[in-house]
Structures are given as structure tokens and as C-alpha cells.
Write a sequence for this structure.
């Protein structure tokens, strides 16, 4: 048993002992390095989402910080002066007293940092999307499943912890609108209008370690146009998967959960003209899903940019920037992050929803911390969220190959489209490996 596994077992055992005598998590005792029985957490990606995620777990001990931007690292260091500081996440993972890491880097480094961390016995919280390719998403699932009970994982889908999503899931699974044959999901975020790579090279700013920012991505010169924020760099295939990679993690999560979805049978996509380097200005994807348990076979549709599904009577979906529309045999359910409407409204005006059956969340971050200390799984663990991201990223593979994919999930391949292989499993720049 490794030192980290032993330390985690002491945390779990002492948590259980504290709960048994009524002390609760905040007061359990143990023999260990961190003060007050708190977890030692490393933060990989320290500003932007990284700063927000660090704040979300700041009830524990922030013991290490990493950022490829020296200015970001200095800002985080001022907030957590006790933490050791690194520019390279691979060096952070060598710090021996860590229990867990929070990964908030660019999408194309999420899976590498996550797999390396799990290989070292660390629990992992990772921003969405969990991976940059279908193969990476499957590897994150498999690595977690091989370590289930020894470490805890959570993807950054904060909306999964909300009451509204819980009530929608209960309505769908309780049969409020009957068997669901279709679900439509959309987001108004648009891709770049100009998808051409900048012609000129620029000198990276002195505070940015450009080679580390690129990480496993193909070599390319620095240009400032890549970096204004996630909604820019995620549009480049080398660094992200556009709107469906990002917002699909939040929005497709709802039908994935409510309809108990898993591997699709087929995936097809269309969009604005295919570009070599960047996500399209708009994209539509359709997945065909088989029947699962008490859920019938169904089709799931994604729309982004200027595209929307057909609006139901009395509701203009052009006024909804994001949303999910479930279409059942006995009605429809329209929802977003904060509201839900059963349709047609006249039919459901006296409808009494089922009593809540899904317990309230402890809180998105608290779920993960609780899972580390107790050994109980979090709701967005990598088995669930990895399958969700694997599913979503197949949409970009279908679009980029311009094919309707016949999906063989067991062998991780499109049986009718061998050219998809290089997108399902991407090559890395020399010196970078996934399973390190």
C-alpha cells in the first residue's frame, strides 16, 4: 500500500470515527501532516476557473499551486501563501504530502494531468470537459474505475448539484410526460467567424511559459489571439472542442442523467463549413440511443450558434439562450438551469409533481471532499462524467469526418469510418504521454 493510500485510509477512518461520536467532519482527528485533519490539495491552473475552484475547496489546506503564467501564480500565491508554487504540473505531482488535485487548465491538458494524478494515488477534481478526445475520456473512466474506493473524482459540472436538475430528473423518470423519444439541447454560443490561423508569430510575454501552455498540443508559434479566455482557445481543435465540449458538459448532462443514457448506436452531425483548425460557427448533432431498462430507444439532438429546435406552442426558443426540451408520448418538458415547464401548460395546470426522491446535494465541491474522506462516490465521478464527455465528443468526430458514425463502444471505434481513428485518439507532441 502506498504512503498516499495509507494517509487517505487514515482520513477516511478518522472521519468515520468522528461521525460515530457526533463530532462531524470538521472535528475529526488523525495523525498526518496537514493541520486540523484537512486534506492537502494541489491547484493546477490557478486563476480564472482555477481561482474559483480553489475557493470552492478552500475549507481544506491549499498545499500547492501551479500555473504556466507567472503573474497568475503570484496572485494565487498571495491568497495561499503556505502553498508551494510550480510552473509545471508534472513537478507539482511529485510533492509527497498531497491528497488530491484540482485541475483547471486548458482542455487539452485535463486528461493528462488527471491520469498522472490518479496514477499517484491522488483524488481528482477536473474542470469540464474531462478530456480532449474520446480516447482520453475512456481512459479517465477506466483509470477511476480501477481505483474506485481508493480515490474520489468529480468533474466540474456545478449545475448537477442544483435542485432544478433534480426535480427535472424526477419528473422524467416518474413518467410525467410518458416515454421520452426525443430530447433537444441547445446553446447560443457561436464559433469564431474567422477560423484561420494567425499568419504572423509573436513573442510570448515574459510571464508566460508558452511551451508548457502548449503541452501535448502540436507545436505552433505564440499568438495573443489564442488567449483572451476559454471561449477563444477552446474553438481551436488543438486546444478544445468548442461549445459542445464546454457547454455540452453542463446541458447534455440533464438528459444523460434523466434518461439514463450511455453509449450511442450512431452519431451524425452537420454545421457551417468544415474548417481545418477551428470549431464551426454552428453545429447540430444527433445521437441514436438504444433502449435502456425502462427507457425506450430515443434520439438526442444538440444545437449551437444560430440553430434551435422547433419551438413548442407558446414558447419561442429564440428567447432561450440555453435549454433542454424533452418530448414524451404524453407531453413535453422545457427546462434550463433554473426553471422547468411542463407542456402543454393547460394539460398540466393541476399536475402534482412526485415527492422529491433525489436528496439535496451537499454542494458541488463538498460532494467531492466528502467522497475523499468517506470513500463514498461523488455524483459526477469520472465513471459517469467520462461517459458523458466521451458521448459528446463523438459529435465533433462525426462532424470532422462528415460521416454518420456506426459506433462500436466496446472497441472504441467507428466501424464504418476508419478515418475517425486519428480523431478518437489524438497524437501528442514528443515528450508528452497520457498514462504517465
Amino acid at each position: 500500500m502506498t504512503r498516499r493510500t495509507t494517509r487517505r485510509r487514515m482520513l477516511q477512518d478518522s472521519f468515520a470515527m468522528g461521525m460515530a461520536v457526533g463530532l462531524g467532519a470538521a472535528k475529526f482527528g488523525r495523525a498526518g501532516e496537514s493541520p486540523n485533519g484537512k486534506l492537502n490539495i494541489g491547484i493546477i491552473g490557478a486563476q480564472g476557473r482555477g481561482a474559483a475552484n480553489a475557493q470552492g475547496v478552500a475549507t481544506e489546506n491549499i498545499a500547492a499551486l501551479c500555473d504556466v503564467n507567472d503573474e497568475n501564480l503570484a496572485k494565487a500565491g498571495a491568497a495561499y501563501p503556505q502553498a508551494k508554487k510550480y510552473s509545471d504540473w508534472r513537478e507539482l505531482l511529485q510533492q509527497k504530502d498531497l491528497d488530491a488535485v484540482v485541475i483547471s487548465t486548458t482542455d487539452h491538458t485535463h486528461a493528462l494531468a488527471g491520469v498522472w494524478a490518479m496514477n499517484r494515488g491522488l483524488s481528482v477534481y477536473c474542470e469540464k470537459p474531462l478530456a480532449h478526445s474520446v480516447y482520453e475520456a475512456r481512459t479517465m473512466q477506466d483509470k477511476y474505475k480501477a481505483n474506485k474506493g481508493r480515490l474520489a473524482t468529480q468533474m466540474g459540472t456545478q449545475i448537477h448539484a442544483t435542485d432544478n436538475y433534480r426535480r427535472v430528473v424526477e419528473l422524467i423518470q416518474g413518467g410525467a410526460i410518458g416515454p421520452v423519444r426525443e430530447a433537444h439541447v441547445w446553446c447560443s454560443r457561436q464559433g469564431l467567424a474567422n477560423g484561420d490561423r494567425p499568419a504572423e508569430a509573436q513573442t510570448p510575454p515574459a510571464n508566460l511559459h508558452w511551451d508548457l501552455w502548449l503541452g501535448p498540443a502540436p507545436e505552433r508559434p505564440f499568438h495573443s489571439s489564442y488567449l483572451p479566455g476559454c471561449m477563444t482557445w477552446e474553438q481551436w481543435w488543438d486546444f478544445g472542442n468548442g461549445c459542445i465540449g464546454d457547454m455540452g458538459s453542463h446541458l447534455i448532462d440533464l438528459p444523460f442523467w434523466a434518461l439514463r443514457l450511455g453509449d450511442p448506436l450512431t452519431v451524425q452531425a452537420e454545421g457551417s463549413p468544415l474548417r481545418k483548425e477551428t470549431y464551426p460557427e454552428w453545429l447540430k448533432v444527433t445521437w441514436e440511443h438504444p433502449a435502456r431498462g425502462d427507457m425506450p430507444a430515443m434520439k438526442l439532438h444538440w444545437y449551437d450558434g444560430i440553430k434551435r429546435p422547433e419551438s413548442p406552442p407558446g414558447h419561442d426558443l429564440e428567447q432561450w439562450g440555453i435549454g433542454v426540451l424533452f418530448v414524451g408520448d404524453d407531453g413535453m418538458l422545457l427546462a434550463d438551469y433554473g426553471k422547468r415547464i411542463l407542456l402543454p401548460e393547460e394539460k398540466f395546470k393541476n399536475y402534482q409533481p412526485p415527492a422529491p426522491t433525489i436528496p439535496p446535494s451537499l454542494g458541488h465541491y463538498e460532494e467531492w471532499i466528502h467522497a475523499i474522506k468517506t470513500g463514498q462516490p461523488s455524483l459526477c465521478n469520472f465513471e459517469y462524467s467520462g461517459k458523458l464527455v466521451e458521448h459528446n465528443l463523438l459529435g465533433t468526430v462525426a462532424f470532422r469526418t462528415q460521416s454518420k458514425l456506426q459506433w462500436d463502444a466496446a472497441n472504441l471505434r467507428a466501424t464504418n469510418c476508419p478515418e475517425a481513428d486519428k480523431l478518437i485518439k489524438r497524437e501528442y507532441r514528443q515528450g508528452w504521454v497520457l498514462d504517465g
Observations:
- The chain is about 30% helix and 15% strand.
